[in-house]
Amino acid sequence: MTAARRVLVATGLPLALLGLWWLASADSQSFYLPPLRDILAAFADTWLGGRLADDVLPSVIRLLAGLAVAGVAGVGLGVLIGSSRRLRATCEPVLEFLRAIPPPVLVPIFILVAGIGTTMKVLVIVSGCLWPILLNTVEGVRARDELLEDTCRAYGIRGLARLRHLVLPSASPQIVTGMRQALAIGIILMVISEMFAASSGLGFTIIQFQRGFAIPEMWSGILLLGLLGVALSLAFRVFERRALSWYHGLRRAQRGPS
Amino acid sequence: MSKTLEVRGLRKVYQGPGRSVEALRELTFSVAASELVCVVGPSGCGKTTLLRCAAGLLEPTAGEILLEGALVAGPPPDMAVVFQEYGRSLFPWMTVRANVELPLRSKGLAGDHRRRLATDALAAVGLGDVGGAYPWQLSGGMQQRVAIARAVAYEPHVLLMDEPFAAVDAQTRAELEDLVRSLWRRTGVTIVFVTHDIDEAVYLGQRVLVLSSSPTVVQEVLAVDLPGERDQLTTRSDPRFTQLRSHVYAQIQQAKRGGGQPAPPSPEGAAAPGS
């Protein structure tokens, strides 16, 4: 498939849906469902000015910070728990319990502990993103190949070298899966964390528009959130393709020539 | 000749829930420096268990293994292992060259030295030009060559090979057998080669160790008095080769029927057990 055709396939349905929305809403008189024309006009006015730096950027930075903390903590703890059967048996019930708690209900607690600033919002994101990364890392570390483990032992590959060359790479496909799930959860929590006691951010701004009956602006914020999600997932896909090129190659080789 | 590897009264019992399996009953033998010894036996007789114990990867239930006089209590630094499943023993996230260099890194060798050893070892196995490829981009035979190059670059005193060619096709196998012979003759490394293939054992080895079926003991030690210069055509059509392989075959058949019986008379000219 040529590049041009790929772009066409990828953008065809979104464009068709936008076109449908445009036509269907063209002479809408409803206050709450304004024409797409108005929403797009509001989009340019609302977001392409200073708001990009004042509201969108802080949100994205908090999201990335939360993902980074969750990633480091999740992989670190996951390697520890995945390496020890006893630790795993001890931790698993607790992990299942903690994971089952929806992060939004923790917001009041985080506000009590960390105030209403950036720390609280990052904590909310971490509290949701940690689990998929942690649990997938545990699985990935646990499922490493025994023969590779023997190879490391036979050749005296121990300690940090073993961690770097055996444990982390062999768990990396699972870790990346966990990170992909965490990214989706993180965007949701980014918005939720800004709906409580916030003074800036994408979620805060959308709520402000809604409360001020600036309906086209509110809709444009929702569009922007969707676009942000698409951009992040595209960026993640590029990262994944680079980080796991060996894995995809191996899978193709194992499936045999097709 | 000095004994490089000594196995004394090796016994291994696997303790399972509710039952235990005696994989090795009592194995005693030794391998001299720069010797190439093949170990054959009926399937399920514990060949791999023996090799894993010798490699320090598995703890014996009783008995001991000495490498150059020192007790093996874990994988010793002067030993390298080539496993049967090449596809699983190479790191798929590393290039061929990185795979060969990794053990050298843990040995603490400097970068230049590592690169030189890896280059030489890859050239020695005929893979001088694929260092930048990933293992899964290569055929099975080439992957096993990489595993052999990794072992050779490590410069071990003893090289343990666990049915290394069981999963490659017949032609590749013949090439790899000759590769092992030539590497052995060139480097003088001591090799213990475990196989289920009788022809392979006779073709490769200076001595063949025949194991009985489980519970396993050493059924016979056979000296292979074929010329040192061997090749697939002349050696395999040598009447002496046929004689030796028939003898080993008969031994293994007997081992399958019920081990522990006294060995039949050695073929004419063959050395007595334990020599």
Question: Can you walk me through this structure?
Answer:
The complex is a heterodimer of chains A (258) and B (275). In chain A, 82% of the residues lie in helices and 0% in strands. Chain A is mostly helical. Chain A is globular. The relative contact order of chain A is 0.11. Chain B contains nine helices and ten strands. In chain B, 47% of the residues are buried. Chain B has a ten-stranded mixed beta sheet, sandwiched between helices. The chains are: A mainly alpha (258), B alpha/beta (275). At the A-B interface, α7, α8 and α11 of A face β6 and α3 of B.
Regarding quaternary structure, what we see is heterodimer
Report strand % of chain B.
15-25%
Could you tell me how far the N terminus lies from the C terminus of chain B, measured between alpha carbons in angstroms?
A: 11 Å
Write down the overall geometry of chain A: globular
Indicate the percent of residues in helices of chain B.
25-40%
Task: Name the helix and strand elements of chain A from N-terminus to C-terminus, one letter apiece.
Answer: HHHHHHHHHHH
Distance between the termini of chain A: 17 Å
Q: Main sheet of chain B?
A: 10 strands, mixed
Q: How large is the count of helical segments of chain B?
A: 9
**Low-pLDDT residue spans of chain A:** none
Number of strands of chain A: 0
What is the overall pLDDT average of chain B? 89
Using a beta-carbon cutoff below 8 angstroms, give the protein chain pair with the largest interface and the number of residues from each chain.
Answer: A-B, 23 and 28 residues
Number of beta strands of chain B:
10
Which structural class do you get from the secondary structure elements of chain B?
Answer: alpha/beta
